[in-house]
Every structure is written in structure tokens, then in C-alpha cells.
Design a protein that fits this description.
Blueprint lengths: L4 H17 L4 H41 L7 H15 L1 H14 L4
Length: 107
């Protein structure tokens, strides 16, 4: 029995591509790979926005503390928690807690 080497290589290549994504076809693997690239770009933007939020929060904390106030404003944090929860449901509360923790700065 003879086999076509190019068919074997193509099949092996498709299987390897699909295997790295969990997909069962080359077409699905292509969709997943493209979508993952978009997610990676979105994650980079989200990280950049969080870093920007941290910097703005630092400005607010410095102004508050230099005027004799406290570093953290708990009523404002409750507003933020409510906003995230309303927009994203229960998991939004956990996300908001993480964002707030990142933005409180170092004690």
C-alpha cells in the first residue's frame, strides 16, 4: 500500500494545529487562533487601562492625603463595587475588589 507523503504531512500539520487549540478541525483551529490573538490584544488594552487607572487613583490619593484626608474613601469604593456588580453581575464584584486593591497603592 502506498501513501501520498504530501497528504500525510498536510494531515499531520492540520492535526498539530488543531491539537494546540483543542479544535477538531483545521478550520476551527484557525478561528480559535484568530480569536485568541484578539483576546491577547484586548488583555493588553485592559492591562494598560488598569495601569492608567492606578496612576489616576494615585493622584486622587495624594490630593486627599495632602489635604488631611484618608488614603481610601470607602463610600467611593462602594460606588465602584456597585457599578461593576451592576454591569457584570456577581463576578463583577470580585473584579472590582481586585481593581480597587491594585489602585489603593502601597501602604
Amino acid at each position: 500500500m502506498t501513501t501520498d507523503i504530501s497528504t500525510d504531512i498536510s494531515t499531520a500539520s492540520s492535526a498539530a494545529t488543531a491539537a494546540g487549540t483543542g479544535a477538531h478541525s483545521a478550520e476551527a483551529a484557525d478561528v480559535i487562533t484568530g480569536a485568541r490573538g484578539r483576546i491577547d490584544r484586548l488583555d493588553d488594552r485592559i492591562i494598560g487601562l488598569i495601569q492608567e487607572r492606578m496612576a489616576v487613583s494615585d493622584v486622587i490619593q495624594d490630593a486627599r492625603m495632602s489635604s488631611g484626608g484618608r488614603r481610601v474613601n470607602l463610600s467611593r469604593e462602594m460606588e465602584v463595587l456597585g457599578h461593576y456588580s451592576e454591569a457584570l453581575g456577581k463576578p463583577g464584584t470580585g473584579l472590582a475588589m481586585t481593581v480597587l486593591e491594585l489602585c489603593r497603592g502601597r501602604i
